[in-house]
Design goal:
It contains 7 helices and 17 strands. By secondary structure, the chain is α/β, with parallel strands linked by helices. Strands 1, 2, 3, 4, 5, 6 and 17 form a 7-stranded mixed beta sheet that branches. It has a 5-stranded parallel beta sheet with strand order 8-15-9-10-11. A 3-stranded antiparallel beta sheet has the order 12-13-14, with no helix packed on it. Helix 1 packs parallel to helix 7. It binds flavin-adenine dinucleotide.
């Protein structure tokens, strides 16, 4: 008897992975190695494309984000169970035996059916409304302190944001420089007590409204206050507000946390059997490439294991070719513990 895993129908994938960042690609690699028929659908707009060098990924420190993706996709192409489709997923809905995934690339619309889904579409960033900020984002304005703090070590740094965790961000940043000014743009909150703690370490807080950032070909040179004054700075860390763009799964009613991220259990199962999530869409706040890749591998292991065990729970559904059908999606294990599943906001 063949040991090639059964495929319910040539039109039904075992897994549809939405998003081909490190989370989605890592999940894909582990799933195709488990011989799960996997389609990866990706809009190919990496959030980190703004930078030329990404840091902290073992063996790939300093690699360009696009190169990292290219290498991963080259590896995946060696596997017969892998398919890739460049498109934006517009809707995922429940259908008999799994999920229907609708996508759009220009005028071309496609629809795929899969027994399970992995959501790995990352987050979008809402920045303080400073007109020129994006021009320096990824080169001398950064959001991830752990990723780019080393390159800006010893610099004259700004911490810009409109949230209530700026003091904490500045404390973290002080590992890389002692010259830091926190700019709240008149919106972000730093308590008097936190301001005093920061002042003890030479970090000042500027609560004035900002006009813009300024710079030249060499990079950022300063922060322009609404009054016109320019405060010289050589680099900045900005605190965006992160929003997972998950409208395409609205109809599934997945549990989300107060920050809008998907609630998952320790292995990446969402509140709906058959739907898994990994990477920045599943964590409060963006992490790092290697963390997202690790989560992708973890979710692949859980998903593959769930499908394998479901076959044994359903003796009428042997796993290998020549046998009739696979386990139904409803027989996959319960996902998020009710206590973990918080209301949507
Ligand atoms: C400027 C910048 C610099 C960074 N530098 C570093 C660094 O040096 N080191 C580091 O470790 N981390 C860095 N990060 C963080 C890192 O990029 C993220 O943590 C990581 O990419 C998250 O991986 P992910 O797979 O969850 O999502 P992403 O990498 O964001 O990938 C999500 C993918 O999903 C696709 N997508 C979104 N919606 C849809 C849809 N509806 N349909 C189809 N596809 C969709 C997107 O096009 C994208 O390709 C940086 C981030 C930024 C913004």
């Amino acid at each position: 008897m063949s040991t090639e895993p059964v495929r319910e129908s040539p039109d039904v994938y075992d897994v549809a992975i939405v998003g081909a960042g490190p989370a989605g690609l890592s999940a894909a690699l582990n799933l195709v190695r488990a011989r799960r028929h996997t389609i990866v659908i990706d809009g190919n707009r990496p959030r980190n494309a703004a930078t030329f060098h990404s840091h902290g990924f073992i063996t790939r420190d300093g690699v360009s984000p696009l190169e990292l993706r290219k290498l991963a996709r080259q590896e995946l192409q060696e596997y017969p169970h892998y398919e890739y489709h460049q498109a934006m997923v517009t809707a995922i809905t429940r259908v008999d035996g799994g999920f229907s995934v609708a996508s759009k690339a220009g005028l071309q619309k496609s629809e795929y059916t899969a027994r399970t889904v992995v959501i790995a579409t990352g987050v979008t960033e809402v920045m303080p409304a400073l007109p020129t900020l994006r021009a320096f984002y990824g080169t001398s304005i950064h959001s991830c302190i752990e990723c780019d703090g080393y390159e800006e070590r010893g610099g004259h740094l700004a911490m810009i944001g409109e949230t209530d965790d700026l003091a904490d961000r500045a404390m973290l940043l002080s590992q890389w420089s002692s010259d830091i000014i926190v700019f709240t743009n008149g919106v972000g909150t730093v308590t008097d007590m936190d301001e005093a703690v920061l002042a003890d370490r030479g970090i000042t807080v500027d609560r004035r409204a900002l006009d813009d950032v300024v710079g030249d070909q060499t990079g950022l040179t300063g922060i322009r206050i609404a009054t016109g004054e320019v405060v010289p700075r050589s680099a900045a860390f900005v605190r965006p507000i992160y929003e997972p763009a998950l409208a395409y799964v609205d109809s599934l009613g997945l549990a989300t946390g107060i920050d809008g991220h998907l609630v998952v259990d320790a292995e990446g199962r969402t509140s709906l059997p058959g739907v898994y999530a990994a990477g920045d869409s599943a964590e409060p706040g963006p992490r790092q490439l290697i963390v997202a890749a690790g989560q992708g591998a973890r979710v692949a292991s859980a998903l593959n294991g769930d499908l394998a065990r479901a076959v044994f729970a359903n003796p009428a559904a042997p796993a290998y070719a020549g046998a009739p059908s696979a386990a139904p999606v409803d027989s996959l294990p319960a996902t998020v513990e009710p206590a973990l599943a918080r209301d949507r906001h």
